[in-house]
Amino acid sequence: MTLCKVLGTVTATAKHAAFFGRRLMVVQPVDEGGNAIGASFIAVDHTSSAGPRDLVLVLREGNGVRQLLKDKTLPIRSMIVGVVDEVAV
Amino acid sequence: MYLGQVIGTVVCERKYQGLEGKRLLIVQPVDHRGQPSGPPEVAVDAVSARQKDLVYLVGAREASLALEPSFVPVDSAIVGLVDAVDA
Predict the structure, then answer these.
(1) Are the C-beta atoms of B82 and B55 separated by less than 8 Å?
(2) How far apart, in whole angstroms, are the C-alpha atoms of residue A32 and residue B72?
(3) Is B66 close to A62, i.e. CB distance below 8 A?
């Protein structure tokens, strides 16, 4: 899983049925100090509570997503699975 | 998943079984500001995207799950038309 900062939200009306009712966020991978590393990407929010500027934990692997959501057919590859309170290095 | 902008189409008369009738589009991956990130790629269209549309895509194994039948050889699929990016 990767640490990411939430940059904002994505709205899409026309989408694959797997995304109905799911929140889409733009996230930016960051290092342990909160510095941006790599390109931003889109993740589904499984916590339902992540918001802009939050530090979050993102799962970037589709099989884990399908196990969490209990649906073997979902074309979803990245998902926010935790809101980080603190990182100690 | 990632954002992209549709920049063209690809026509293949002969393609793998299961991909008949599926549209192939050339997509430029972009970041949340609309700036290109990485080289353009060919993606299969699951949502009737058009030229210049801002879309979001799913890659790898999950791309084929966006299609019916789902076991087809694609590694990039357009799965949503983006109305707005608030970031």
Answers:
(1) yes
(2) 39
(3) no
pTM given for the model = 0.93
Q: State ipTM.
A: 0.91
**pLDDT one-digit tens code per residue, A45-89:** 999 899 999 999 999 999 999 999 999 999 999 999 999 999 999
Residue A38: half-sphere exposure toward Cβ, Cα within 13 Å? 12
Interchain CB distance below 8 Å, A76 and B58: yes
Taking alpha carbons only, the member of B5, B19, B58, B75 closest to residue A22 is B58
Q: Which residues of A touch B (CB under 8 A)?
A: 7-16, 18-19, 24, 26, 39-44, 52, 62-63, 73-78
> Do residues A59 and A34 touch, judged by C-beta distance below 8 A?
no
CATH architecture, domain defined by A2-83:
Beta Barrel (2.40)
Cβ atoms B5, B54 nearer than 8 A: yes
Fold of B2-81: OB fold (Dihydrolipoamide Acetyltransferase, E2P) (2.40.50)
Contacts of A9 (CB under 8 A, 6+ apart): A23, A24, A25, A26, A52, B85, B86, B87
* Amino acid, res. B33: R
